[in-house]
Amino acid sequence: HDAETARAIYTPERYARLIAASQQAQTYYEANGTVQYTLAATNDEAIDLAAMRWADPSFYYTNPERGAIPEYENRFPIMAWEEWLTFDALAAADGIKIPYLMIHGDQMALPDNAQAFYTEVDSTKALKWVEGLQMDYYDQPELIDNAVDLVADHFNQTLR
């Protein structure tokens, strides 16, 4: 994403609140040496500072049968919001000068941004537009296997 996309996703009002909270948390950290955290993922959309809010209880990061395993510390440093919201991933595309493979799809995060990034890459490149929800690629064997096969094919073609 870029800052414009983040502002649209989070709404301008929430974007401003998150930036302000981030700056306050950064100031607190600099004064006290303590990082303030919020939830990384929640099903409670009322928790404004949470990094990911998703009402569906099957959401990967809040589902104990998927991503909410005991080893996962469900926390996000509040001071990281500003860096996250203002990060411009799209600006890096023209710096890619090696063979590039993008695997993405309509049901994954920001498909328009992914397409824009791909368009800006100035090297040998391939785009594989796939089916499936983004988070299903984390733990669903058939989708993982498909992605791994695409990557293996890419490496076989470009690393020889």
Describe this structure in words.
By secondary structure, the protein is α/β, with parallel strands linked by helices. The protein folds into two domains: 3-86, no CATH class; 92-158, no CATH class. Helices cover 39% and strands 11% of the residues. The chain has five helices and six strands; from the N terminus they run H-H-E-E-E-E-H-E-H-E-H. The protein has helices at 3-10, 12-32, 81-86, 111-120, 141-158, and strands at residues 37-38, 41-42, 52-53, 76-77, 100-104, 125-129. Strand 5, helix 4 (111-120) and strand 6 (125-129) form a beta-alpha-beta unit. Helix 1 (3-10) crosses helix 2 (12-32).
What are the salient characteristics of this protein?
single chain; alpha/beta; 11% strand; globular
Summarize the helices and strands and which ones pair or pack.
Blueprint: H1 3-10, H2 12-32, E1 37-38, E2 41-42, E3 52-53, E4 76-77, H3 81-86, E5 100-104, H4 111-120, E6 125-129, H5 141-158
Parallel strand pairs: 2-3, 5-6
Antiparallel strand pairs: 1-4
Helix pairs in contact: 1-2
Helix/strand structural class: alpha/beta
CA-atom Rg in angstroms: 18 Å
Overall morphology: globular
- Total helical elements: 5
- Rounded mean pLDDT is 96
Question: What gap, in angstroms, lies between the N and C termini?
Answer: 33 Å
* Portion of residues within helices: 25-40%
**Low-confidence parts, pLDDT < 50 over ≥5 residues?**
none
Strand tally, please? 6
Content of β-strand? 5-15%
